[in-house]
What does this fold into?
Amino acid sequence: MSCLNSLISSHVSPIGDHFRLSKVGIGKFPIRIQNLHRFSASLNVEPLISTDTTKLGFGDSKEIMAAEAKLIVGTYGRVPVVLASGKGCILYDVEGKEYLDMASGIAVNALGHGDEDWVNAVTEQANILTHVSNVYYSVPQLELAKRLVDGSFADRVFFSNSGTEANEAAIKFARKYQRFSHPDEKQPATEFISFTNSFHGRTMGALALTSKQKYRSPFEPVMPGVSFLEYGNIEAAKEAIQRGKTAAVFVEPIQGEGGIYSATKEFLQSLRDACDAAGALLVFDEVQCGLGRTGYLWAHEIYGVFPDIMTLAKPLAGGLPIGAVLMTEKVASAVNYGDHGSTFAGSPLVCNAAVAVFDKVTKPGFLASVTKKGEYLKELLSQKLGGNKHVKEVRGTGLIVGVELDVSASPLVDACRSSGLLILTAGKGNVVRIVPPLVISEQEIDLGVNILSKCMSAIDES
It folds into this structure.
């Protein structure tokens, strides 16, 4: 019996082959489980949206996965779930099984699934104008840019289609800035500094800034001129950031893929000071931790330290592909027509979706609610898991939270998925990464943590 089933079995009364609607008391709040059918090894829930795959020529999940293996390049180690529909923080697979989503598409679905305002923004814009390219002006792009500039340190924005594209653009802008600022030097600063446990993307420039050797080695030589320093090591950074050599320093204020590690104010301030002294640019990668994830609009606001460039992506368009590079006028003045570009970036459709996300995240009380729910999540995790011998630390800010284990987290993540909870791994595979939609409720947090707690036995069983 799955962990979720063990939580609810005592609250559901069988009636023939079906199960009666019941309330389940978990934590402080009741969870209503609907449409339970043939209660056995897994919980099957009738989806809100049709999951009929026969119209596409496919049948059940096994048939779909077999077809995928023949058609799609094998770059993804997918888990054996075929998701078909979702609403709020709940997802359904093609068989109708229900999952509580505490992964949100790797920190992308900030408003959950099927948010009414987001859906309206997308459908209304799709009926008006979807794409025109950057040969022409469009109003939604300007509307989004104005919001990003007004709500941040930045003076200007460049749009891209993903986080790795945003970081590629930042690399080019940093190099161009150094050349623009030192026109008389034959060889201006061109090198970059990144940090241990960093992740900046998978395209060749961003990959060069990513510390994990397993990501880089199959594609070497990657972009040269990158040095990796220990994350948080102030003295090493001061020594390494040099005038005439260092073009920019790339750092995540909170590392997501790296294991949910948070910088200190002292560390980020030391980078700011060293960059200023050396004429280098400071780039904050907030692709995962930005736009409300921490309970602050931007993660660097926690520390009161501001960059020259900030890269954004994941949550910005609520599930549609987008990236953005925010920068000061000092940096933007070095960039000319033709220095960079993108066919699809900043399209009316995607930007209108992003405007809806930005407007909701910046509504009064929204960020405070993220902070409150994040504190509740960490408190509950500490209460439920803190006594387990395998749990080393619960850490994070807002709704980007990690549970570090002394063993691989994969068996636990797999058990949770089988029990109806979607979470992720991070770090060296020993960190449980919890990044739910920012609209998650406390009762859903209760349910998620209870499933996680019940499934901890999977670690020893593995």
Q: What stands out?
A: Residues 15 and 297 are 49 Å apart (CA to CA). The first strand starts at residue 14 and ends at 15. Residues 366-385 form the longest helix (20 residues).
